[in-house]
Specification:
Helix content is 42%, strand content 14%. It is an alpha/beta fold. Strand 10 (372-376) and strand 11 form a beta hairpin. Helix 2 crosses helix 8 (235-246) and helix 7 runs antiparallel to helix 8 (235-246).
Amino acid sequence: MGTHRLLQRDVRFKRLGLLIIDEEHRFGVMQKERLKKLRTQLDVLSLSATPIPRTLHMAVGGIRDMSVIQTPPEERQPIKTYVTADDDELVGEAITRELQRGGQVYYVHNRVRTIQKAAERIRRLVPKARVAVGHGQMGEDELANVMVDFESAKHDVLVCTTIIESGLDIPNVNTILVERSDRFGLAQLYQLRGRVGRSGRRAYAYFLYDPRRSLTEQADKRLDVISGLHELGQGFKIALRDLEIRGAGNLLGTEQHGAIAAVGFEMYLQMLQGAVAKMRSGSEETAVGDVLSTTEMNLDLPLDHFIPRSYIRDEKLRLGAYRQLAGTEDEQELDSILRSLEDRYGPGPAQLDNLAYSLRVKLRGQRMGLRGVVGDGHDIVIRVDPQRFLDVEELSRRLPGRFTVAPNRLKMRRQGEGWQQDLLRLLDEMAELYEAARTVVAAQGH
C-alpha cells in the first residue's frame, strides 16, 4: 500500500500480480500504465465513485469489466444540494444553522492567495464561529495541527482548498459551501459533496457561483447535473453525465476526455466495438482498416434523445440497450430492437422515439457518406462528401424552396413540428440522386 511514490522508477517489485488503484480519477493515464508495464500478466482493479470518462467508456465498450456498488451505508441520508448565487446572507445563515445544531462546516475557497480574505469574510458574517484555515502550501506540522484540532471540534469552520476532496471522514461536519463552484469538474463537485453526510444526520451542500459572471455552457451543465441528483450512490450516474458532457477521451493515448465530437457518440461507440471484437478474434489488421474506412459522420440534432431511467431503471440493462441500438447496421435491425424493448418495458417515451429517429438519420446519412447532420440555430446543416457528385439542380426541382445550398453543405430550415419528416424526405431524395449518379458512372465504366 502506498501513494504515488510506488510509481517512481527506483521502486521495484519482486512478483507483482495485482494492482488496486483507489480514487482512480486522481491518476493520469501515464501513471496508471506505468505499473502495468512492469509485468505482462497483471490484474488491475480500479476503484472510484466517479470514474473518468475514458475509463467509463472502456467499460461501456467492453474493454474492461465493470461492477457497480449502489447500496449506501446503513442510516446514511441523502445530501440536500443547492446550486445558488453567492450571497452574504445565505452564507451566514447556512453556517449559523449548522452551528446551532452543534455541527461543523467546510468552506471551500480554492485560491491560496486569497484564502485569508475568505476566512475574514466568514468571521465577519458569523462572529461567533471559530474559523481555521487549511491548504496544501502550509507546513506539514501546521496543517496536521489544524486538521487534528478541527476533528476535535476546536474549530467550527474550516476554510480550505480542495485538499479535503477525498480521504476525510469527520461525521460532525454536515454542511459544505463551495465558492466559485463553476470552476470545478463534475467529479470534484461530487467528491466534495461526499465530505459531508457521513453520519446519520441530514447534510447540506451549497455550490455557489458569482452572479456577476456568466457561466460557460459546460459549467452550467455540470451544476445542473449536480443539483438534480440528490439520491445516495449517484457516482455512476454522475460519471455517465460527465461522459456525455466531456466525451470519452483517447483510448490509445493519454487524453482522459474529449475527442468524441468529431464522429458523434453513437458512431464512436460503434467504431470502438467493431475494433474490439475483431482484435479479440485475432484479426487486428482488419479491425484497424475497418475503423479507418468507416465514414466519419457528426450527428447533432436539436432533440432530447436518450433512454430515461424511468423507462429502464437498471443501469446495466440501460447501457446494454444503448449498445444494441448504437450497433445497428440497418433500419430493419433498429426496428427489431425497438419492438423488443417495447415488448419488455412497454411503449417507449418521447426521448426514446427521438433516439430512434436520430439513429435513422445516422444510418441513412452513413450510407450516403455524409460528413455530418447538425442542428445550427433554426437550420439543419447537412455536410456532404465533396468527392461525391450530387445533382443539386434536380434536388431543387424535387423539393423546391425546402433548402439552400452552400459550399459542401445543404441547409434546411426547421419549420414547425414536421421538420423531422422533412429531413428524412430530403435524405431519401439525396440517396436516390446519389444512386442514380453511381449507376451512370458504372455504366460509363463499361
